[in-house]
Write a structure and sequence with these properties.
Number of domains: 1
Number of helices: 1
Number of strands: 6
Radius of gyration: 12 Å
Shape: globular
Order of helices and strands: EHEEEEE
Distance between the termini: 19 Å
């Protein structure tokens, strides 16, 4: 899980996610989450692609969390 901070850039975060997936994170967790807890938006990254989250519900199989308002 990667939680956004004011210093994060989209380019840096995407590079970091690529490193996680290349390293084999998918074998531990299906997803890499990037979230902005202030508004419940973010992205779920998997080897298959990127899913945008607008409703604050992040999931990985049976595991799900709700963030934001």
């Amino acid at each position: 899980m990667e939680i956004l901070s004011p210093d994060d850039t989209a380019v840096d975060l995407r590079a970091e996610v690529h490193e996680y997936l290349a390293f084999g994170v998918a074998y531990v967790w299906i997803n890499v989450w990037i979230m902005d807890p202030s508004n419940g938006t973010g992205e779920i990254h998997t080897p298959a692609g990127i899913e945008r989250v607008q409703n604050g519900r992040f999931h990985a199989g049976e595991v799900a969390i709700q963030v934001g308002r």
